[in-house]
Amino acid sequence: MTVIQKIAVIGSGTMGGGIAISALSGGLKTVLVDTSDASLEQAQARVHKYFDRQVSKERMSAQDRENALSCLQVSTVLSAASDADLVVEAVFEDLDIKKSVFSQLEQVVSRTCHLATNTSALRVSEIASALEYPDRFCGLHYFSPAEVNPVVEVVRSDMTQGSTVTATLSFLGTCRKIPIECKDQSGFALNRFFCPYTNEAARCIDDGLGTPAQIDDVAKQVLGVPVGPFFVMNIVKPRINLAAIRNLAHLGPFYEPARSMSAIGDADASWEISDAPATLGASARQVITDRLLGAIFFAVKQELAEEVATAGAIDLGACRAFGFAKGPVEMMRDLGADAVNTLISSVTANVSVSH
Ligand SMILES: NC(=O)c1ccc[n+]([C@@H]2O[C@H](COP(=O)([O-])OP(=O)(O)OC[C@H]3O[C@@H](n4cnc5c(N)ncnc54)[C@H](O)[C@@H]3O)[C@@H](O)[C@H]2O)c1
Prior knowledge:
Number of helices: 15
CATH class of the largest domain: Alpha Beta
Strand content: 5-15%
Structural class: alpha/beta
Bound molecules: nicotinamide-adenine-dinucleotide
């Protein structure tokens, strides 16, 4: 097995910068490659700021910061990745650009180098079609901010070889990340239910059940999450969340974007979340609770049936990536099949789906 000692991160934007910080924190030599000098400069400033803060918060010594910073290299040319053991690509979400990056990369890296994409919505196997050796390729899907969120989905296509999975799992272990292994399906293991949850929250708005602040409040109580779905969407950006939901729409009518979700996302706007929402009546709270849970359970039941990921992986990811107090599979087990089916009916009643 190749031991990952040096990684290259292609694309130094929101995700690439965070992935580089995570690798440097694990003590790995890291080269950041971007076609834009401005993006590389911004990423370098972000890396410095992150490690300065670690020192000022007494989470690391000044010497360790120097050691981490000395492991960083930046470049505008792909050939800087030539001696990497693993390359993680985080360029724009565009199939042609990603395919072109990987076919150029194969010309510069060694045959033993593993390759990974941080795509959120494209099929790993489709990107792999650009490669001469697609067996060395997998998805490594980080959650933003990648230097903070501990979860990374390890996405295996039908062509991914076991040694690539083993090497990337070991790399993630070095960076103290929590791997969630899953299949190459739309939404992978976690966005498969998290996107429908945010979408159902928007459907509750469309149905006049509450305001974003009121629905966030219900979600916090029901799921034990630190922040509600509208708050999360505003951080991720509604436009990006809408793109992730549209990526699931081919799975059936339940997954199609809510009216308000499309309106806010397409306008590149944010949800208005008031500071002190008026208290909701008990019955409205109950309806919102049922619908948020129903949406999560519907999607999780489907992905379990499709064997996208194990129950344990889905629950671990929900708790560690999104801050759920309890994983959805455990919640379903606690509630029992009849109660779960009733909750699912509360969301599928308006869309023609079978479950
Ligand atoms: N932003 C998120 O929350 C998030 C979360 C998970 C996954 N992702 C995925 O990560 C990837 C990157 O997203 P982002 O938000 O960091 O984007 P971004 O726009 O912030 O950064 C992309 C970077 O790639 C660079 N780039 C473009 N083409 C390049 C090329 N040919 N060679 C080298 N560099 C190139 C750009 O200059 C830019 O700096 C996308 O596939 C996205 O879907 C994003």
